[in-house]
Inverse folding.
């Protein structure tokens, strides 16, 4: 038996934007066939709760199970049902379905009414500081309240949506019916594990949860992992970093020095007329400390080129009704 997530398409129906109907879906494959939710209209589980806050914009692309219940004129509880397999009845949810504290419906509670043997949550949950601390608190409590084992499986990797690069830290974990944690995987590691798991909710097989909060080492690991994967995604093997002599650029340079050979990193300081000798000296010292390539390029020549391009430039509207000659005064030049 295999459980996996994918986009499910119903070409006979449309989303609310008029495009072909798409569901954020979970599939259970067994013996060469897809096992559907009990009494479900499709051979896959449809995500119930679509987040639309911060970086999430799920309803822009997908049709959720709540809307499908309204469309089919039935109760949501009729569509939130376990998947029956040869080994167990599994209550399957996707990502946000397990973070239901701020919603008026709980997919896990609806599944619990059917008494599944265990629960599975497949997720693509991006890393934020101490995210795993919250996961342990939430999912351990859910397993304990549901009285059945809960397997949480999270994506490992990065995603570039054109505006932001998100890192996915994995940290998959299995909880027994008492809320104890077992087989908790490390951050940013693609792993596999085999576990002989008893299905009884009162049979412990894990250890009490004692989640810790992220410190500097964990944040550093997240930055290094995301940066390294993004470099590979772009095919970049060498970088140029502007170093001012301040903390921000020093941290960036230090991170890259842990990912690339030192001769593939060029640190550039661009002093101007108001740059202090101290910051220039600190930038050079940073390069010496890291053993990277370094150069100092005065920014004044570049400023003058831009100034000559802009000062005296005649700008006009396409119809000629507006016309202005741009002028850079001494204050603007500073």
């Amino acid at each position: 038996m295999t459980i996996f997530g994918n986009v499910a398409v119903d070409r006979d129906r449309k989303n609310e934007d008029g495009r072909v109907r798409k569901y954020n879906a979970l599939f259970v494959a067994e013996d060469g066939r897809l096992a559907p939710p009990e009494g479900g209209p499709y051979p896959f589980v449809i995500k119930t709760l679509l987040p639309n806050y911060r970086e999430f914009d799920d309803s822009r692309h997908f049709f959720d199970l709540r809307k499908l219940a309204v469309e089919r004129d039935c109760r949501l509880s009729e569509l939130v049902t376990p998947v029956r397999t040869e080994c167990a009845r599994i209550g399957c949810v996707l990502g946000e379905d397990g973070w239901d504290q701020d919603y008026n419906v709980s997919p896990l509670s609806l599944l619990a009414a059917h008494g599944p043997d265990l629960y599975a949550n497949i997720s693509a949950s991006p890393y934020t500081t101490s995210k795993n601390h919250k996961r342990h608190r939430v999912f351990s409590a859910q397993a304990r309240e549901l009285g059945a084992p809960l397997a949480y499986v999270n994506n490992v990797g990065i995603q570039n949506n054109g505006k932001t690069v998100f890192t996915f830290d994995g940290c998959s974990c299995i909880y027994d019916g008492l809320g104890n944690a077992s087989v908790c995987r490390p951050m940013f590691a693609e792993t596999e594990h085999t576990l002989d798991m008893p299905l009884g909710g009162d049979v412990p097989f894990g250890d009490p949860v004692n989640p810790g909060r992220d410190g500097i080492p964990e944040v550093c690991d997240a930055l290094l992992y995301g940066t390294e994967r993004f470099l590979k995604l772009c095919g970049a093997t060498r970088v140029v970093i502007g170093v001012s002599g301040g903390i921000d650029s020093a941290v960036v340079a230090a991170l890259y020095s842990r990912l690339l050979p030192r001769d593939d990193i060029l640190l550039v300081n661009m002093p101007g007329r108001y740059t202090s000798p101290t910051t220039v000296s600190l930038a050079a010292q940073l390069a010496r400390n890291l053993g990277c390539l370094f150069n100092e390029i005065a920014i004044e020549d570049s400023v003058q080129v831009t100034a000559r391009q802009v000062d005296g430039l005649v700008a006009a509207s396409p119809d000629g009704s507006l016309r202005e000659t741009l002028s850079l005064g001494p204050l603007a030049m500073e």
Observations:
- The chain has eight helices and 17 strands.
- The mean pLDDT is 93.
- The chain has two domains: 2-212, 220-333.
- The longest strand covers residues 2-14.
